[in-house]
Amino acid sequence: MVKNITFHNCDHILSKVFLALDGELSSEEEASFLAEINQCGDCLEKYQIEKSFKDFLSKKVRKECCFETLAQNIKNKLYGNSSS
Fold first, then answer.
1. Are 21 and 50 in contact (CB under 8 A)?
2. Counting C-beta atoms within 10 Å of the first and last residue's C-beta, which end of the chain has fewer, N or C?
3. Alpha-carbon distance 29 to 19, whole Å?
4. Three-class SS of residue 40?
């Protein structure tokens, strides 16, 4: 009987970390990624560090809207409209 042996490739898994964190994997790819990453303590640790860092940044960075006049002035300078 031949056993189905799969080899874990850390480089291959780690190349998908940012895709997973950014939600760019399909549900099937994400399930496969999570199953594989849980097989390797080193990969899982690196994933958790990146996830913690991304979570930290998202809590610290605020999205603020600028004044409409500022946005219009920037557009005018970009497009050469001197009506400001």
1. yes
2. N
3. 10
4. coil
Three-class secondary structure assignment of the chain:
CCCCCCCCCHHHHHCCHHHHHCCCCCHHHHHHHHHHHCCCHHHHHHHHHHHHHHHHHHHHCCCCCCCHHHHHHHHHHHHCCCCC
Cα atoms in the 13 Å half-sphere on the side-chain side of 46: 14
Over residues 51-78, the pLDDT tens digits come to: 999 999 888 887 777 778 888 888 888 8
Domain locations along the chain: 1-62
Provide the whole-model pTM.
Answer: 0.63
Q: Are 37 and 13 in contact (CB under 8 A)?
A: yes
